Amino acid sequence: MSIFMNFLRTVWVVLRKDLQVWVRQPATMAATFLPPLGFLLVQALTAVAVGRSPVALVTLDHGPKGVQMQQIFHQADVFRITDTSPEQALKLFNGIQVVAIITIPADFTQRVEAHETSPVDVRVNNLNLDFTNDIRRSVPDAITQFYQAQGESSAIKVTMQAHNLRAQDVQLFQYSVLPTLILLLMISSLVNGGLATAREWETRTVKELLMAPVGRGAIITGKVLAGFATSMLLGVVVFLLCYLLGWVQPVGIYWLTTLLTMALVALLGSGLGVAIGAALQRIQPVIAIGINVSLYLFFLAGGVGVLAFEPQWLQNIAAFIPLTYGRHALEMAVFYSSSDLFGRDMLILVACALAALLLGTLSMRRGIAH
User: In what order do the strands lie in the sheet with 79-83?
Assistant: First the structure.
């Protein structure tokens, strides 16, 4: 019992010392926060830019059918619409402030009621295929909704039935929050675990550790737990902030699965960080390599898109990246309240975390031995 208590006491002393050093190092905290926040900002700007296409809507018919068509375009939830005149619409179009001009003709109501062809004019700037295809798909869909709304009086009988595969819609920006959280956890745990280890060699305090009458296993455990504790603290704070902002909404038991997934990712990064710190034994290289390793793992796990729609070669690589499974587990728990493939994700994360801890232990022991 006394041996075990001495082990715990040593672990706590090492952990507390590293946490105190971390609090006094704002540059380290900045290096942890800035890359994920930069990606989150980029994702936010991208979502604003491509989430809804900017469109000028010119309604020349103010009859009942023209107004109804105008309302359907507004309710389509795929456009950022500016209602305007033909002249102003052309000015916006030429100034590349809108991607398209949609014009409802002046005789639209008359033609629809007479069951005559009444074309809705669409002028598209095809400077970007993503915008262009959005318009090409969305305008016919809006027109289809218009004919469905006419009921039995419609010249074209349309019946639409939509069944959502998932219980809720997830906005593009919301979808990017969880991969960014994974990146934050990975950078924080890897960099902080690496710095806590490399600092012992750079400041020569490793000699004091070697001369202390304590087990080396306790020292290594304290280093790993220091990286884990700082990254989990940051991760939980950021996650709660996202929850308060309404970006993530886990419910019930899925709070626990979310925290478990975050903990395993943090443990994985901390083990790798200790391994890198013991191998390099210098602070500056640890920061550079730690951030770059995290970024590469983030990208290879499909961090900037929907992995299922990425190129096949990237999907094949992602299958061997543990962050892929952490991301999947978080998405299922947070967005869809689902435990789909939860066992697989946890098994892989646990195995990878244990492997990282073993690698960190071996690297630290080897560094101490030399």
Answer: 79-83, 53-59, 100-104, 121-124
DSSP-assigned letter for residue 151: G
Partners of 59 in the β-ladder: 104
Please check whether residue 286 is in contact with residue 194, taking contact to mean a CB–CB distance below 8 angstroms. Answer: yes
Grade residue 213 by pLDDT with cuts at 50, 70 and 90.
low
Task: Taking residues 98-111, report their average pLDDT.
Answer: 90
Among 33, 55, 13, smallest CA distance to 139 is for: 55
Task: Give the residue-averaged pLDDT of 74-101.
Answer: 89
CA nearest to 360, candidates 233, 222, 232, 263: 222
8 A C-beta contact, residue 267 and residue 190: no
Does 172 score more than 80 pLDDT?
Answer: no
Residues in contact with 182: Cβ distance below 8 Å, sequence separation at least 6, in sequence order: 265, 298, 301, 303, 323, 326, 327, 330
Buried b (16+ CB within 10 A) or exposed e, 5-43: eebeebbeebbeebbebbeeeeebbebbeebbeebbeeb
Nearest one of 256, 267, 254 to 332, comparing CA atoms: 254
**pTM (2 decimals)?**
0.76
**More confidently predicted of 360 and 244:** 244
CA distance 8 to 17: 14
Q: What is the largest CA-CA distance in the chain?
A: 96
pLDDT given at position 208: 67
Measure the CA–CA gap between 243 and 3, rounded to whole angstroms. Answer: 43
The residues, any chain, with a CB within 8 Å of residue 242's CB and separated by 6 or more, are: 177, 181, 248
Judged against a pLDDT cut of 70, whether residue 68 lies above it is answered with yes
| CA 362 – CA 206 distance, rounded (Å) | 16
Strand intervals (E) in the chain: 53-59, 79-83, 100-104, 121-124
Average pLDDT over residues 260-282: 90
Residue 362: count of CB within 10 angstroms of its CB: 13
The whole-number pLDDT of residue 102 equals 92
Domain definitions of the chain by residue range: 52-153, 169-369
In CATH terms, 52-153 corresponds, of 1.10.8.100, 3.40.30.10, 3.40.1710.10, 3.40.220.10, to 3.40.1710.10
